[in-house]
Amino acid sequence: MSGCSPETLARLVEGRLEAPLRDATVAHATGCARCRAELRRLRGARDGFEAARTLEAPELPWEQMGAQIAWQLRQAPPTRARWPLFVLGGAALAAAAVLTLWLLGRAGTGARGDGGELAAPAPSAMPSPAPLVSPPPVRPAAAPGQAWAFLIEAELIRGRAGAALAALSAEAAAAEPLLAGDRLRAVGGRVGLVLETRTALVLEAGTEAALRALDAETIELELARGRVTLEVARRSPTQRLSVLAGGKRVTVRGTRFAVALQDNGALAVGVGHGRVELGLADAGGGPVLSIDGGSVAELSAGEDVSNARVRALTEDERAELEIELPLPGTLAGAELPGATRLLRVGSSQAAVLTLDGAPVGQGSALVRVLPGRHLLEASSGAHRVSRWIDSALGEGISVVRVPAPGPRSGPSAARTMGRPLEIDAQVRAAGKAIKACYAEGLSRRPDLDGTVLLRVDVGADGVLAPVEVSSSTLGDSGVERCLKSVVQRWRLPPGEPSTVIYPIELHQN
Amino acid sequence: MGDFVNDLTAPTTKGTMFARSAVRKDSRSSETRLRAIAGGAEAPRQPPPARTPVLSLERERELVARCQAGERAAQDELYRGHRRLVAGNLYRVLGSPSELEDLVQEVFVIAFRGIARFRGESRLTTWLYRIAVNVALQRLRSRGRRREMLPLEEQDGGATDDTPEAELLRRHQIAAVYRLLDKLSPKKRVVLVLHEIEGLDVAEIAGIVGSPQVTVRTRLHYARKEFYRMAAADPELDERRVVRAGPDRDGGSGSGSGEVDA
After folding, report:
1. How far is A397 from chain B (nearest CA, A)?
2. Does ipTM come in above 0.85?
């Protein structure tokens, strides 16, 4: 019977059948089991359509997708670049919580490619470092220009311009040198990269950036979203580092700063020490704002540089600007819990540092330690020095200075010993002046007591950048100022540029 | 802008300018959907997914102008305001979350690259909708005959106040519908989805797919005919079988093994 065709039944189900045909169809269906079955199925289909109206797309990584759209828009339009690997499941993220650190062997010769790509290291390159951490990951074959240290506490996603990003394991990511054109994304945590010049950058979780230029002259990082904190070494007087974000360019040399680009386009540039210049991304035009250490400049999306709001950093913000380069949790073979303490350890580049017998790094390092008493050692060949350190919760960042082992005289030794010893010698020489600062403070406040951590950045020429108080429990700005002026007068022999945090303890006894 | 530390440390998802309700989530009881329709009386229909403009016309024009001027913040605002709308549309047309992320990105990349040509002759939402449908159509064509099942356990269609049985039935019916849609040609599928699920009329569909109304009407007619013939023969859609047998994850559409007669 024609009244039982699926089309007719569908119209019945939808209520679109006119009265005579509808009545006839209903009458027929009442006595027709097949029609009734088909009616039920068509009702099911109609209900399925209606239920589908309520379908909502699953939750997607909107922010990442937004960043990818921005990326793609910057590519040439004909390139239908896709970013399929950005679909990362929770399991992948969990698996990505790999902690790896080592320095890739630095090859002293052989420029890589031409403009924009990694050039040969400067002649004054630091001594070739050995792997830092035991057990070291698979070490890549030495390749010209591979001079970068990777410090990865999350998954690093990399890709070259015009190519899809690839999720790399920590090992794979570190096995290749960074190149101009690399795009970087930190997934599931922070990613720290230490460049051969000792310039360190930390990408906060979710941060996406592109390395637009990377050579002996220029490092140019374009921030698409998130926050990158940089500590720029004063290694090369000619190397210029820029961060591009939100249409602005932050240009720096020998400083520590952070650039944060909000999803709404708002830009914040905080400067720990040194000085940065904020201008338009296209160099050569527009106003340039100079931001001094201890300040933060804030701009809304698209706002002119000249309208930037500049204010002083708070103490918390200063702490935010601390570059932490977490080392693997090798302490007692256990993962380090969150409630740990950070130790900045300075020693000569040749000295291997161990904490409780476990290697934690080489040269200068920032180490997370558990609360308690730990034996910190620095050893180089047959020489070894050690000291006990006490770590308690809630102390924040503590600084441990480890005198480098080895011969203490001779020009060759001076080159390998590193700055801490030289500064140590300077402190001893300046003992009288330091005591005078303290005495002046005591005359005003008889109960004055505490430790001042001075941050000393020494250039290759031995000249100090403006000395800063890294932290202080003294609570007396007069004495702190006095100490800074004493240290500022120091002149060190030319050598490895470095940053030393030096503690000066002031007690009445 | 808040203080520096907060700005630096705040989750990047904060400050979303538009509420999540850009795509309406209707969680009406499935009772209405399960009502018998004896005698052909029309049951209340589930309203179509929201396609109402996110912004006022004035604000929309201003936003488009800023995007046309290449202002990145405006692009960001447009994306934030419409991303769920676009994703929801793509999801309902395709019936599968696979590659949704890529496709949403593709829609917005096309939109931003072509926004200079957007003259405001239609609403922004309609224009985005058009792009999304075309992206989905391309996807369907490239998908070919390959089946992509809607993962029932993952799909989130609201209606969380349903009883477990009703929810089971509902999910099963959605999956069965998309299994049948997968058998239609991409063109037929798109017009049928736009009509039956998105709730668009022939004129609206014609504007979106860029075909004459008469073509759309014909295509819709044949799509419906083909679909309902398949549906009438598909025991998967029979609510009695579904409730008794539970979902058949293997599909097995048309096997007839679960046929239950009255």
Report:
1. 18
2. no
